[in-house]
Specification:
- The chain is of the alpha+beta class and about 200 residues long.
- The protein has a single domain, classed as Bifunctional nuclease domain (Roll), CATH 3.10.690.
- The protein is built from 6 helices and 8 strands.
- Strands 6-5-4-7-1-2-3-8 form an 8-stranded mixed β-sheet.
- Strand 2 and strand 3 form a beta hairpin.
- The protein is globular.
Length: about 200
């Protein structure tokens, strides 16, 4: 069985230098799943989540263009297994006649689900073994069934990517001499600081 998830957060990983943590959350549940992703995947995720466009096509955009050229439609993305701390993921494509499955890393899977604008699923097995149980306010719960509370007024959602992490991504873009991308991060940071 699989559960649909959405991206709840993306932040710089303190434990693994040069990597990011992408937090996925069940759309109809309280479990969250943190996954370590590469900087390139984090860049694509951040750009898509923040509604920004890269000045030049990124690798994930190239993959989509290639798929579109051959009339391959990505139906869904699945994170279906975890073994020894490694998440196994796949893309499910259809060309109008046949289905095709392509294995990928979890970071690429998350990024490509945004690029293709298709559903992202995580298997029940993965959520059960690696998911973190939270209540309505996002507080951790013990390893038991969450107790249902009365409907409460929802607080304003936290941003998916913090200002600090956007600044870190801007610095990485400058270091990599991706000045147009750095300028987009700068503009997004300025916009968020005004709020």
């Amino acid at each position: 069985m699989k559960r649909e998830v959405k991206i709840l957060g993306l932040s710089y990983a303190q434990s693994q230098l040069g990597s990011y943590v992408c937090v996925l959350g069940e759309t109809n549940g309280h479990r969250k799943l943190p996954i370590i992703v590469k900087p390139q995947d984090a860049q694509t995720i951040a750009l898509r989540v923040e509604g920004m466009k890269a000045p030049r096509p990124l690798t994930h955009d190239l993959f989509k263009s290639l798929s579109d050229s051959f009339m391959l439609d990505c139906q869904e993305v699945q994170i279906y297994q975890v073994l020894e701390g490694i998440f196994y993921s796949r893309l499910i494509f259809n060309n109008g006649v046949d289905d095709a499955t392509i294995e990928t890393t979890a970071g690429d899977a998350i990024a490509l689900s945004l690029v293709f604008e298709c559903p992202l699923y995580v298997s029940e097995e993965v959520l059960s073994s690696c998911g973190i149980q939270t209540d309505d306010e996002g507080n951790l719960l013990p390893d038991e069934e969450p107790k249902r509370k009365k409907a409460t007024k929802k607080k304003k959602a936290d941003p998916v990517i913090s200002l600090e992490d956007l600044k870190h991504m801007m610095e990485e873009a400058i270091t990599n001499e991706e000045y147009e991308l750095a300028a987009q991060y700068r503009d997004k940071i300025a916009e968020l600081e005004k709020k």
